[in-house]
Specification:
With 236 residues, the chain is of the alpha+beta class. The chain is 42% helix and 23% strand. The two termini are 18 Å apart.
């Protein structure tokens, strides 16, 4: 088990521990997927993936159907994905993924959080290169031969496959998402959930006091409704 596994086990998932927060995020994902590829999941691979994640998060089926129906309404605003980059105190790089229907509001809010917590909002490309953009899939562990699966899926971009208490995880570069999703579906393998992560290439160890400074900024950013994910280079 490699770096992706260690990163995943060490991450703090406070933002999505609350079910309401998770449902809000999935609702935005549904709107973006429907606006991009239509409301039919059979013809929209992105929507299929979001619906799998909704099921994994125990989001009621009627909530998902309502969100899809709402997304087809021409009066429903679309959400635009935007990436923010910057530095928290003590030289910790931050990468912030947002989905917003009001870019001016989001920019102003993110900038204010950095200013209030002694951080620095950076320019595009200033820290993104410090993170590997990956995709992941979770499938059931039905006595799968992981070594054999790794050999088979390496042709589709998979870099790491390992088991944990909740099933089997497949990690690959961001651009391999479509190929792996298609191959899993063609084999009739159930996809429990899927998603994307940004894994820091190098992390920095801080003292407890320094960590508190960084977490103060991260917590403030994560409270914003437009924020989907926050990634950092602080060792945890």
């Amino acid at each position: 088990m490699g770096r992706a596994f260690e990163f995943r086990k060490g991450r703090k998932m406070k933002r999505w521990s609350a079910m309401a927060k998770a449902f809000t995020r999935i609702g935005k994902d549904i709107v973006m997927a429907v606006k991009e590829g239509g409301p039919n999941p059979e013809a929209n691979s992105r929507l299929r993936a979001v619906m799998q994640n909704a099921k994994s998060a125990n989001m009621p089926k009627e909530n998902v159907e309502r969100a899809i129906k709402k997304a087809t309404d021409k009066d429903t605003a679309n959400y635009k994905e935007q990436l923010f980059e910057g530095y928290a105190p003590h030289g910790i790089a931050l990468l912030i993924e947002t989905a917003t229907d009001n870019n001016n509001r989001t920019v102003a809010n993110i900038r204010s959080y950095f200013n209030k917590c002694n951080g620095t909002l950076g320019t595009q490309g200033s820290v993104e290169f410090m993170f590997d953009h990956t995709c992941n899939f979770r499938i059931p562990n039905n006595n799968v031969d992981i070594e054999e699966m790794e050999l088979e899926f390496i042709d589709f971009g998979a870099e790491e496959i390992f088991a944990d208490e909740d099933g089997i995880l497949i990690y690959a570069p961001f651009e391999s998402f479509g190929a792996i999703q298609k191959e899993l579906e063609s084999r009739g393998i159930e996809i429990l959930s899927s998603g994307f992560e940004r894994i820091p290439q190098i992390t920095k160890k801080l003292t407890e006091a320094e960590m508190a400074d960084v977490e103060k900024l991260i917590d403030k950013i994560e409270e914003d409704d437009d924020v989907m994910n926050v990634y950092h280079t602080m060792e945890e």
